[in-house]
Specification:
The protein is an alpha/beta fold and about 325 residues long. It folds into two domains: about 190 residues, Bordetella uptake gene, domain 1 (D-Maltodextrin-Binding Protein, domain 2, 3-Layer(aba) Sandwich); about 120 residues, Periplasmic binding protein-like II (D-Maltodextrin-Binding Protein, domain 2, 3-Layer(aba) Sandwich), CATH 3.40.190. It contains twelve helices and eleven strands. The strands form three sheets. A six-stranded mixed beta sheet has the order 2-1-3-10-4-11, with helices on both faces. A three-stranded antiparallel beta sheet has the order 8-5-9, sandwiched between helices. The chain has a two-stranded parallel sheet with strand order 6-7. Strand 1, helix 2 and strand 2 form a beta-alpha-beta unit. Helix 1 packs parallel to helix 10 and helix 2 packs across helix 10. The longest helix is centred in the last third of the chain and has 22 residues. The protein is globular.
Length: about 325
Amino acid sequence: MRKVELLVLFAAAMFAAGAVAQTYPTKPIKLVVPFSPGGASDLTARTLGQKMGESMGQTIVVDNKPGANGVLGIDAVAKSSPDGYTILLTDRGSLTVNPSLYVKLPYDPVRDFSYIGVATDGPYVLVANPKLGVNTVQELVGLSKSKPGTVNYSSFGIGSMAQLNLEAFNHRMGTDMLHVPYKGASPAAQAVVAGEVGVTIAAVPAVQAFIKDGRLRALAVGSEKRFESLPEVPTMTEAGAPNDILVPTYFALLAPANTPAPIVTRLNAELKKALTDRTVAERLAGAGLVPVGGTPEAMAESIKQDLPRFADLVKRIGIKPE
C-alpha cells in the first residue's frame, strides 16, 4: 500500500474517531468497580457517576465485580470494547501492586488501558494504641529501635497498602516492627484498639472516632497538609519523616486500551468538572478522600514510578507471587 493511501486511511480513522466523540455518549455507560459495594471505591464511583452522568446526559451505571483482589473486574474492563461505554474505577494497589503479587496477571496496567485520570487520593493516618506509650513518630522510631521486634503492626492483608507502607517505614526509618495481617481494614484497626497489636495505618474516617475518644493515638497523616478533621495531627514531614513513606491510596478512572483520544479527553473533563461540585466534594471529604482530578499523563507517570517501587518492596518483604 502506497504512502498516500496510508495517509488517507489514517485521516479517515481520525475523522471517524472525532465524529464518534462529538456524539458520545448516546447510551448508558457502565462503570465497573472491582470491589464489593459499601467501601470507599464504591462511594467514589457512585458519587462521581451520578454527577458525571447528569452532565453528559446519560446514566452511568455502577457495576460491582469483586474478586481476586480486584483482578476479575479489572480484567473484564481490559477485555471490553474500547468505545467509552465500559470504564473502570479502581485503586492504586490493584493497578501497581497486583503485578508483583501474581505470576500470571491477566491484564497489564500499562499496555491494556487508556488512563482517564486519578479522581481522589485516600490519605492514611498512622495510629497507635495509647498503651504503647508513644506520642510521636520519633518516639515510635525510638521504641522500635531500642526494643527490636517487640512492636507489631496490623495490615489489611498480605501485599496490602498498609503492609507496603509500614515496611517502607521500617526500611526508611531503621525500625523493626513485625507484621500481623488481618482480613480487611476494619479488623486491622480494631486490633490496635483492642491492644492485639501496637500500630496500623487507616483511612481517617475509619479511626476518627477512636482518636477522638482516646482509644487510638494519631501520630501523623500521610498527606501534604493536615486534615481539617484532625488539625492537631502533623503530616509525616512535620513529624520528622519523609512524606513519601506513607503514600496514599487513590481511586482512578480508566478505559480499555485504544479508546479514542477524544472520548478519553471528554471523560477527563467531566471528571474534573464533577470534582468541583460542592456536594460531591463534601461527600468525598466525609469519606476521607481528597479530590485530585488529574490528567491522563500525570496518572501514567505515577504508575510508571509505582510499579518498580512496589515491586522492590514486595521482593524485599519476601512475598512470593501466587
